[in-house]
Amino acid sequence: MNDTPLHVVGNVVDVPRQNRTSNGSVTNFRMASTSRRWDEETKGFIDGATLWIDVACWNELGGNVARSVTKGDPVVVVGNLLTESWESETGRRSANRIKAIAVGLNLARGWSDFTRPPRVDRSAGLASPQEPGEDAASAEDRYAHRPTDYTGGSETLHDTDSEVTSEEPAVPALT
After folding, report:
1. DSSP of 50-104, one letter per residue?
2. Where on the phi/psi map is residue 91: left (φ > 0), alpha (ψ -120 to 50), or beta?
3. 170 pLDDT higher than 60
4. Is residue 57 scored above 70 in pLDDT?
5. Pick from 83, 96, 131, 140: most CB atoms within 10 A?
């Protein structure tokens, strides 16, 4: 099967809608991507054509999009382009849609706090991953007794200079 992979950078133009279907859950939203170019005459950017496209995010991706993305957010969508067709009162209709593989906030336009959902332990007898803030020292960690800070104390960090301070000869740099 030939998929048409696509990366689209734009803005969410409506509130993502989450629905349950017989095939799983899906979150749909519409996005707009407007091209811009520099105009030497006006010494400014000029907006070009706008691509309006629907995005479908299935299952876990859809749930994460519904929790994380809202109208107006700048996003980057990666997915496959497909055309959906249906019959209506006016005849056969069709529309392009992206079946998303990944959706992310566009960090060129702002910042975000990422939260990873806890993993479900599906195997018996294996330890589940530690949650942030839990005690890192465990009986299985051979290095838990070692200090994590510089052993000479913080005051000695500032006493050294850029010259070689040991008796060992300096190793020449590779050129």
Report:
1. EEEEEEEEEHHHHHHHHHH--TT-EEEEEEEEEEEEEEETTEEEEEEEEEEEEEE
2. left
3. no
4. yes
5. 96
